[in-house]
Amino acid sequence: MVSTKAPEDAYTAQPFVPEGARGLPALRRAAAECRGCPLHRNATQTVFGAGNAHARVMLVGEQPGDQEDRQGKPFVGPAGRLLDRALHEAGIDPAEAYVTNAVKHFKFTQAEPRKRRIHKAPTLREMTACGPWLAAELAVVEPELIVILGATAGKALLGSSFRVGEVRGALLEREIHGRPERLVATVHPSSVLRAQDEDRKAAYEGLVADLKVAARALS
Hints:
Layout: H1 24-31, E1 50-51, E2 57-61, H2 66-71, H3 78-90, E3 97-101, E4 108-109, E5 118-119, H4 124-141, E6 145-149, H5 151-158, H6 164-167, E7 171-176, E8 179-186, H7 189-194, H8 197-218
Parallel strand pairs: 2-3, 2-6, 6-8
Antiparallel strand pairs: 1-3, 4-5, 7-8
Helix pairs in contact: 3-8, 4-5
């Protein structure tokens, strides 16, 4: 029987990932029971990836937000709506993509029980613990291209030295979880929403420009 509590010195989702799972539904069901790190304790539910199981492009973000945690689906909040618009402008059909997050549970702070839940960035330890789920998704979907959305996703896939500003908009080739992958990095759409009014247009245009690199790589 799988233990439901991860030792604090050994956070990992690996024991919860079913061996030989050939489809996303089986992975999604298993992920709902993941106790590989403490983040499950306060989150409403696991938020697994969603979209085309045979997608040519996989978009990887940081973690679920408040709305994603409540609805159980990735990128359904304001950042997700902005991402869909940017994908359309770049020439990528969101319906043909697969979207997921490096971390599958919402991490937040909350001053009082009825106060708004404030996003808190996951640690490298938490990202690493959740890595087996992302590896399993990649093995099933087998995308032609991975789009990295923000620093956390980049660190989860490429290591702690990753910096978005150093590689954004460039087509990269790396080995990820034992598979050769092509990747394009860009900012997380939530960073566009956080930009000052006078800077938001340029931030959005930068996101679209990076996504156009991804679209060209798929053409």
